[in-house]
Amino acid sequence: KQEVTQIPAALSVPEGENLVLNCSFTDSAIYNLQWFRQDPGKGLTSLLLIQSSQREQTSGRLNASLDKSSGRSTLYIAASQPGDSATYLCAVGGSQGNLIFGKGTKLSVKP
Amino acid sequence: EAQVTQNPRYLITVTGKKLTVTCSQNMNHEYMSWYRQDPGLGLRQIYYSMNVEVTDKGDVPEGYKVSRKEKRNFPLILESPSPNQTSLYFCASSLGTLEWFFGPGTRLTVL
Fold first, then answer.
1. A101: which chain B residues are within 8 Å (Cβ-Cβ)?
2. Which residues from chain B sit within 8 angstroms of residue A102, using beta carbons?
3. How many Å apart are CA A100 and CA A78, to the nearest integer?
4. With an 8 Å Cβ cutoff, is A88 touching chain B?
5. Sheet of strand A72-77, all strands in order from the earlier edge strand to the far edge
6. Mean pLDDT per 10-residue section of chain B, whose length is 111 residues
7. Do β-strands A4-7 and B42-51 pair in parallel, antiparallel, or remain unpaired?
């Protein structure tokens, strides 16, 4: 059974720092991996989708990488801002069209 | 605007009173899914559907029913709600191996 782990569970950084969020999964037979952002009490906003054949995707200050063979993905956030404060969720997509989520990393960026 | 809608957004009910949470998407997606989110447990899949009349259980299907009679709609039915079903519920849709889009969530309280 696929399991997704995100480390660290929480992270607090000063504004302007570059940071890395980690996601690992136990079964490398994935179709894709998607990173989401969730603000408190709100829905999920898709940040980046990486297909299994891809190594990375970039959107603005965000860069996500995927190493399927080692079961790892990282989300890199450059020049962090207080508005980046949220919970970041990693989810792996399987062949049945289902998504398995990690428990998230709660990020706090201090001004 | 491409979106996933859920209704109601907030619901307080009592044990045993049947309820339905509706989910609709306007993107002609084949895949739809329901999740519940609980503190410390993260997002867990309840049921998913790969197309009309095709549904399957996720990780926590007990106490829930779904139906997929039309491509755009995927209602979640609680025949006899219990307090342990108090949670934040999300509906999502996708073309399958592509990006998943999430609804705004339904906060359910069962007394």
1. 35, 42-44
2. 42
3. 26
4. no
5. A4-7, A19-25, A72-77, A62-67, A56-59
6. 93 97 96 94 93 93 97 97 97 87 96 96
7. unpaired
